[in-house]
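Hey team,

Filing this mostly as a record. A colleague (T.K.) asked me to run one chain through the structure pipeline before their review meeting, and I want the input and output archived in the tracker in case anyone asks later how it was produced. No errors, nothing strange. Just documentation.

Input sequence:
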Amino acid sequence: MPPMSKKSPHVSATPATEWLQRHGVAFTEHVYDYVEHGGTAESSRQLGLDEHAVVKTLVMQDEGAAPLLVLMHGDRQVSLKELARQIPCKKVEPCKPEVAQRHSGYQVGGTSPFGLRKALPVYVQQSILALPRICINGGRRGFLVGIAPAVLLDPPVSTLRMMVSVLLVSALIRLPSSLKPTPPPLLRVRSRSVRLPLPLTLSRRN
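Output structure:
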């Protein structure tokens, strides 16, 4: 089991950090001054991080109002139409703040995929897993935790309450016309089964 990070005396425990500690996940703590509507651009600026490696946790719902989480690079946006096509469902839309809080148990701006109030499907952009390390919300506004992205696929983790399923979304970024890489395969992991759906195209943030 990897060594746990030491708690800063200035950061109290959250359901997310308690969850990480309980499951032996090593993490670092990063505190910044929360700015309303500042998002990952503000947190990455204050902490001196690459916004691409700061992952945002988005609470969304399908046409039946069933909630789900999407983990996305901070400097990218999700194509809701393409995501709905891949899940698959008729449509996906962001939850209203009060609805998102009810589903996750976290205040908007402090939503973490760890220690959720109830089990939710979690969809993860595949390119996030290629990063050496990511920062993601630690369960409070103004507080990120740094983890190895492989944690998101660790079987003891992905089969517990944090995730009901994981969708690794390929071709997230619509690159300039001069860059046309071959999209990687899209994997859906539910417990220990794996299948290959169609690739997903997502848009670059304006």
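Quick notes for T.K.: Residues 1-9, 159-203 have pLDDT under 50 and may be disordered. The radius of gyration is 16 Å.
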